[in-house]
Amino acid sequence: MKIAVSAQGKDLDANVDPRFGRAPYFIIIDPDTMEYEAVDNKQSLNMPQGAGVQAAMTVINQNAEVLLTGNCGPKAFRAFKAANVDVITGVKGTVKEAVEKFKRGEYKIASAPSVRSHWS
Amino acid sequence: MIITIASGKGGTGKTTLSTNLATFLGKEAQLLDCDVEEPNAHLFLDIKWDEKQTVTAVIPEVDEEKCSHCGECGEICQFKAIAPLESTVLVFPELCHSCRGCFLVCPEDAIKEGSRELGVLETGHFNSTEFTHGRLRIGEAMAPPLIKKVKERIKPDKIAILDAPPGTSCPVVNTMMDSDYIVLVTEPTPFGLHDLKLAVGVTKKLGIPCGIVINRHGIGDNKVEQWAENQEIPVLLKIPFDRKVAEIYAEGKLLVEELPEWSGMMKDLITKIRKTVDR
Fold first, then answer.
1. Which CATH class is domain A3-103?
2. pLDDT at A119 over 60
3. Highest CATH level, class, for B2-55+127-278
4. % of residues, chain A, pLDDT over 70
5. Which CATH architecture has domain B64-109?
6. Which residues in chain B have their CB less than 8 angstroms from residue A62's CB?
């Protein structure tokens, strides 16, 4: 199983980025082995709009089954639902702390986007 | 001839000038309110409405039966309005710019034309002057496609007066494009001057001649005039700061119909514009 964490840096000590679409990196990690890879979200950062959709595509294409992040908007949320990726919002601390908490089952899967669209 | 009335700073008197100039010119003119996000010229005019139509933009609609999930549509879309997933293709209508790129690259011919409502286009007339404006649908973020529809109603044999939105962003640029002359309405204040400089910058990029109208002349300072002189941009008209003008405006009336000197002011203004455009 692979999970994705929106991160401000490239390793496990990096802080979780509260922004999903505009996070600089996604840490794609196997919580059982703690083996991970940092995926650059540069493509979304340069976009004037649609960053959330692009970032969701990036995460989905990494075959992650769960996303840990701060906030997730309605368009990215819709994409994750369609791709059967569970979204967990309100995540804070370092990537490592977040993954540990996830393993202990301390998070609840979000049933709705945590923030509104930038367009309405 | 197409004349755009723009400003930079909001609330300087674009609509006041547009409605009064168009009324003064009568059947020679047509007035087009291009501020589709907040059209207000009609409030000052006794308009007999002739036509109303809904304006839409083309968006992709995916035939899931035909789709092979190759991902080409998502690759070409610069706005991520279409997101191909393994199991389905998501369309985000509000992000689509109607470029039809996805229609062209789809190898399965699986993308059909859908539509998103942009707003309505309304036409009518007041006295013998033709009037057109657009009203953007609430929630719609893209004004330029509707502004372009309003501008399709421009008639080459008329003096088209275009009431522009405030600012210097895409809707303003789209309004100004193809104009023969741009009138920039400002006020003699630091805010007025700051935004005037930005607006003049846009007219220069577009290569369209411009002139300045100073409204509420007498308040603030003379820095707008000094700057205009340095830049060699003509000050076409100074509208004095006058309580009477504010009262007539607040009653929704037209200055050319209430104050005799306004006809002369409008005549002088159009003469100056004509001299530049005809040169």
1. alpha beta
2. no
3. alpha beta
4. 98
5. 2-Layer Sandwich (3.30)
6. none
